[in-house]
Design goal:
It is a single chain. By secondary structure, this protein is α+β, with helices and mostly antiparallel strands. Helices cover about 25% and strands about 40% of the residues. It has a four-stranded antiparallel β-sheet. Strand 2 and strand 3 form a beta hairpin.
């Protein structure tokens, strides 16, 4: 199983809407609001890395209210 963490910056006033929309996307296993330069951290999992990255590019990044993202690919599981 491949795991990716996605850091998401939202447009002002869009946090709750983005959180709910991202949470409903298949492959997303966790979504948490956080403090700092990003507003959300999203955990995604799928059998293949390409599947996870496709979800990021073609589903999550198209959610209205997302300003920017940063993708972190897990290199070890524990």
């Amino acid at each position: 199983m491949e795991t990716v963490f996605l850091l998401v910056e939202t447009e002002v006033g869009q946090l709750e809407l983005v959180l709910e929309r991202v949470r409903s996307i298949p492959g997303v296993t966790e979504v948490e609001a956080v403090t700092g330069p990003f507003d959300l951290i999203v955990k995604l999992q799928a059998p293949h890395l390409n599947t996870v990255l496709d979800t990021v590019v073609h589903k999550i990044r198209r959610v209205p209210g997302i300003k920017s993202t940063e993708t972190l690919v897990s290199v070890a599981s524990g």
